[in-house]
Amino acid sequence: MTMARNKTMLYTVILAFTFIAPFAFPAYGTQLATLWLMIIVALTWDMTGGQMGYNSLGNIFFYGTGMYVAALISIGQVYDIGDYTNAAGGGIYEFTDAQYFGGLFLGVIGAGIFCSITAVIIGFLTFGLRGPYFAIGTLGVAIAAGELVSNWEWVGGGQGIALPVYPGDLDIGKIFFYFLFATVGVSVFVFVKWLYSTRFGAAINAIRDDEEKADAMGIHTLRYKLITWAMAAFFVGMAGGISAFQLIHFEPLESAYQTINLGIFMVVCVLLGGKGTLWGPVIGAILFHLFKEVTWNYFLGWQWVALGALIVVTVVYFQDGVMGWLMHKRPEWFGIRVEDKAAAEAKVEGRA
Amino acid sequence: MSSIIEVQGVSKSYGGVVANHEVSLTVKSGTITGLIGPNGSGKTTLFNSIVGYHPIDAGSIQFEGQEISKFPVQKIARLGMLRTFQQTRIYGAMNGVENMLISLPHRKMSIWDALKRNTREDYERADHLLEFVGLYEKRLLKSGDLSFGQQKLLEFAMALMNEPTCLLLDEPTAGINPTLINGLIERLKRANTEFGITLFIIEHNMRVIMNMAESIYCLAHGEMLAHGTPDEIQNDQNVIDAYLGAH
Q: What CATH number does domain A29-289 carry, 1.10.3470, 3.40.50, 1.20.144, 2.60.40?
């Protein structure tokens, strides 16, 4: 009973902090929004990587594709996309408030849906691959997509796309984007918390632990794999869409299909926090983001070295992450125990 | 009594090695049938052919009158025919209860059912079956930490959870200590009589299989050598020769 109350308390405090944070720390508005982005990509990466045992290095594909889809939908509502991208900043393209917010809303939702569909198609082609082959296969998809898009003039080619600036006060704009990311982030968390408690969650865990056994028990393995990745892609696509509007200008290789930045960071977040756990990706994203911001501010010039060191240490010495370490140190917190024989028998008899 | 598995002239070779050559057998519904034979005689290959692990080269396999030789593993499992593995396979990172709940029959489950939580009945059934195989006290332990014998029992309980009509067991008593074997024999028999599950068992332990099966097939060098009641098999000169290495 007190356990349940403690949990409710914890969630209330976190939710309250989520609301207050951008007002309490106005100078860190963009960093806090980025933190939510990290939490979204880490939680969704863990859906396949941690819970289902398919380590994708290509989830960044959905982020980049989400950016483009959201941008193209919102521009396409008002102007001809070819003309718009051709102008390269030369033409004047005005968006009314209604066009901006309408385009943003439709664009972000459309990005999610589009990415879900592409996940099913790519999944159909790549889910025959296992382990490192799946990781490399999906990485290939993300790299190829970045190269293709940067040679596609209609969507701006290597220049990328410049979107309209937030109409209104830019400080409020920062808070606006913070809350967009936070809404998606909280939704992802609530969604996966529920999903992992269902039979569906158990089935994807079975796929992770022994896919051949899962097949032999009659589980629809391919169906579950495709649906899981499509759900992850939906949220990543939406996050990409929001990023496109937040960044205002983005280009294909460094910001959209940024395989070596965000594409790797999301994996490191999950490893750092603890793969295959509900809180691991969240904790990992917070620690990673803090580490990254601190090194970028105070060890400029050495920040990539520090980051590389963090990745090496995590992968070599701390694979189970914070949650895995806790589970090892305090198994009883996670309900791993031998039940007292007398108590067990009493329970059985009571039921009979 | 109608037949549940009907194997007709099944052949399977790996490269040049003929693992099964025109094997035919019948498993009658509701019975316990045994499959014996020296090492390398093609028993597990035949099991794999029946449950769809690999395509067969020739012949026909029917389950409840339906041709299944071209079906994939999952589809056959969803028809209600399950197998356990010689090298026990359980989900090691999960505890016993979770292993049981994952084994709920997915053939009866739509995607909407899958998005629900397990019901109280599911938990009770899991607990009941864990009690049935004697693992109730250890049900909250990581099942990868259980002993090999306990993992075998868990795998058996998982198979029962799936409510199969027919269960193929690949050496259920291998690696289980002799005192536990009697308990296992009794449980296998009860699974057959109480739950009405047809059992088809590969077994090396002659005492076990002679005790349980009503009908026994003996494979040697990939061919069906003999078929009969336990008594007939025990006294068949060909079977004795195959086991003692005479040609």
A: 1.10.3470
